[in-house]
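Report of the visiting student (M.T.), summer placement. My assignment was to run the structure pipeline on a short list of targets and document each run. The first record concerns DUF3278 domain-containing protein.
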Amino acid sequence: MTVKESWLSCILPDDEYKAQRIVYFLGEGALFMLGSLGFLLIGTQVFSAWNIPIQLLAGIPIILFVAYVFIRYIVSGIQYTNVMSERAFEKEKKRIVVKSISFIVLFPLLYVLFLGWQAFSEKSFDVAGIVLISGVLMFLAEYISLKRSYAKNKELLD
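After the run finished, the C-alpha coordinates were exported:
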Protein backbone atom coordinates (compact mmCIF):
# COMPACT_ATOMS: atom_id res chain seq x y z
CA MET A 1 0.00 0.00 0.00
CA THR A 2 1.49 3.33 -1.00
CA VAL A 3 0.93 6.68 0.67
CA LYS A 4 -1.37 7.70 -2.21
CA GLU A 5 -3.74 4.83 -1.32
CA SER A 6 -4.04 5.94 2.30
CA TRP A 7 -6.38 8.47 3.87
CA LEU A 8 -3.19 10.17 5.02
CA SER A 9 -2.60 11.38 1.47
CA CYS A 10 -5.25 14.09 1.89
CA ILE A 11 -3.06 15.90 4.45
CA LEU A 12 0.31 15.24 2.81
CA PRO A 13 1.90 17.44 0.13
CA ASP A 14 1.84 16.39 -3.53
CA ASP A 15 5.64 16.27 -3.66
CA GLU A 16 6.45 12.58 -3.22
CA TYR A 17 9.79 13.18 -1.47
CA LYS A 18 8.23 15.61 1.01
CA ALA A 19 5.32 13.24 1.65
CA GLN A 20 7.67 10.33 2.27
CA ARG A 21 9.80 12.34 4.69
CA ILE A 22 6.72 13.55 6.60
CA VAL A 23 5.47 9.97 6.91
CA TYR A 24 8.87 9.05 8.39
CA PHE A 25 8.59 11.94 10.85
CA LEU A 26 5.08 10.85 11.82
CA GLY A 27 6.28 7.27 12.34
CA GLU A 28 9.24 8.38 14.44
CA GLY A 29 6.94 10.66 16.45
CA ALA A 30 4.49 7.80 17.01
CA LEU A 31 7.27 5.59 18.38
CA PHE A 32 8.43 8.47 20.57
CA MET A 33 4.88 8.93 21.84
CA LEU A 34 4.55 5.19 22.48
CA GLY A 35 7.74 5.29 24.58
CA SER A 36 6.50 8.30 26.54
CA LEU A 37 3.16 6.56 27.16
CA GLY A 38 5.01 3.52 28.50
CA PHE A 39 7.13 5.73 30.73
CA LEU A 40 4.01 7.53 31.99
CA LEU A 41 2.24 4.22 32.63
CA ILE A 42 5.11 3.07 34.83
CA GLY A 43 5.62 6.54 36.30
CA THR A 44 2.02 6.89 37.44
CA GLN A 45 2.38 3.68 39.45
CA VAL A 46 5.71 4.64 40.96
CA PHE A 47 4.83 8.27 41.65
CA SER A 48 1.13 7.85 42.45
CA ALA A 49 1.49 9.94 45.62
CA TRP A 50 2.27 13.03 43.51
CA ASN A 51 -1.39 13.36 42.45
CA ILE A 52 -0.61 14.77 38.98
CA PRO A 53 -3.82 15.67 37.09
CA ILE A 54 -4.76 13.09 34.46
CA GLN A 55 -5.29 15.83 31.84
CA LEU A 56 -1.65 16.83 32.19
CA LEU A 57 -0.48 13.24 31.96
CA ALA A 58 -2.60 12.63 28.88
CA GLY A 59 -1.39 15.82 27.23
CA ILE A 60 2.33 15.17 27.63
CA PRO A 61 2.63 12.44 24.94
CA ILE A 62 0.48 14.46 22.53
CA ILE A 63 2.61 17.57 22.99
CA LEU A 64 5.81 15.52 22.62
CA PHE A 65 4.50 13.95 19.40
CA VAL A 66 3.45 17.25 17.82
CA ALA A 67 6.65 19.01 18.92
CA TYR A 68 8.86 16.19 17.61
CA VAL A 69 7.21 16.07 14.18
CA PHE A 70 7.19 19.88 13.91
CA ILE A 71 10.86 20.24 14.87
CA ARG A 72 11.93 17.42 12.54
CA TYR A 73 10.05 19.07 9.68
CA ILE A 74 11.65 22.45 10.38
CA VAL A 75 15.23 21.19 10.56
CA SER A 76 14.89 18.77 7.63
CA GLY A 77 15.15 21.50 5.03
CA ILE A 78 12.30 20.25 2.83
CA GLN A 79 9.82 23.10 3.23
CA TYR A 80 11.25 25.56 0.68
CA THR A 81 12.17 23.43 -2.33
CA ASN A 82 12.12 26.36 -4.77
CA VAL A 83 14.64 28.57 -2.88
CA MET A 84 17.91 28.05 -4.73
CA SER A 85 19.34 31.54 -5.20
CA GLU A 86 20.32 34.36 -2.87
CA ARG A 87 17.57 36.50 -4.40
CA ALA A 88 14.89 33.86 -3.74
CA PHE A 89 16.22 33.44 -0.20
CA GLU A 90 15.96 37.18 0.51
CA LYS A 91 12.47 37.31 -1.02
CA GLU A 92 11.25 34.47 1.22
CA LYS A 93 12.93 36.02 4.25
CA LYS A 94 11.01 39.27 3.65
CA ARG A 95 7.79 37.27 3.25
CA ILE A 96 8.44 35.53 6.58
CA VAL A 97 9.07 38.87 8.33
CA VAL A 98 5.86 40.34 6.89
CA LYS A 99 3.89 37.24 7.87
CA SER A 100 5.21 37.34 11.44
CA ILE A 101 4.57 41.06 11.86
CA SER A 102 1.09 40.64 10.37
CA PHE A 103 0.33 37.98 12.96
CA ILE A 104 1.59 40.19 15.79
CA VAL A 105 -0.61 43.07 14.59
CA LEU A 106 -3.72 41.15 13.55
CA PHE A 107 -4.08 38.79 16.51
CA PRO A 108 -4.79 41.52 19.10
CA LEU A 109 -7.19 43.22 16.69
CA LEU A 110 -9.11 39.97 16.18
CA TYR A 111 -9.05 39.36 19.94
CA VAL A 112 -10.72 42.72 20.52
CA LEU A 113 -13.17 42.09 17.68
CA PHE A 114 -14.34 38.72 19.01
CA LEU A 115 -14.03 39.17 22.78
CA GLY A 116 -14.44 42.92 23.14
CA TRP A 117 -12.32 45.73 24.45
CA GLN A 118 -13.14 44.95 28.09
CA ALA A 119 -11.72 41.43 27.85
CA PHE A 120 -8.64 42.75 26.06
CA SER A 121 -7.99 45.54 28.56
CA GLU A 122 -8.21 43.10 31.48
CA LYS A 123 -5.70 40.71 29.90
CA SER A 124 -3.67 43.03 27.69
CA PHE A 125 -0.30 42.02 29.16
CA ASP A 126 -1.16 38.33 28.86
CA VAL A 127 -2.32 38.73 25.27
CA ALA A 128 0.70 40.87 24.36
CA GLY A 129 3.07 38.31 25.85
CA ILE A 130 1.48 35.38 24.09
CA VAL A 131 1.32 37.25 20.78
CA LEU A 132 4.95 38.38 20.94
CA ILE A 133 6.25 34.97 21.95
CA SER A 134 4.13 33.27 19.28
CA GLY A 135 5.20 35.74 16.61
CA VAL A 136 8.88 35.35 17.44
CA LEU A 137 8.62 31.54 17.55
CA MET A 138 6.75 31.57 14.25
CA PHE A 139 9.48 33.71 12.68
CA LEU A 140 12.28 31.55 14.09
CA ALA A 141 10.68 28.30 12.92
CA GLU A 142 10.12 29.64 9.41
CA TYR A 143 13.57 31.25 9.21
CA ILE A 144 15.38 28.11 10.40
CA SER A 145 13.43 26.06 7.88
CA LEU A 146 14.23 28.55 5.11
CA LYS A 147 17.92 28.62 6.01
CA ARG A 148 18.14 24.81 6.10
CA SER A 149 16.21 24.48 2.83
CA TYR A 150 18.42 27.05 1.11
CA ALA A 151 21.60 25.31 2.28
CA LYS A 152 20.27 21.92 1.20
CA ASN A 153 19.12 23.19 -2.21
CA LYS A 154 22.43 24.97 -2.75
CA GLU A 155 24.28 21.77 -1.87
CA LEU A 156 22.19 19.79 -4.37
CA LEU A 157 23.03 22.29 -7.12
CA ASP A 158 26.79 22.09 -6.51
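The helical segments are 16-46, 54-76, 86-122, 124-157. The chain is about 80% helix and 0% strand. I thank the supervising group for their guidance throughout the placement.
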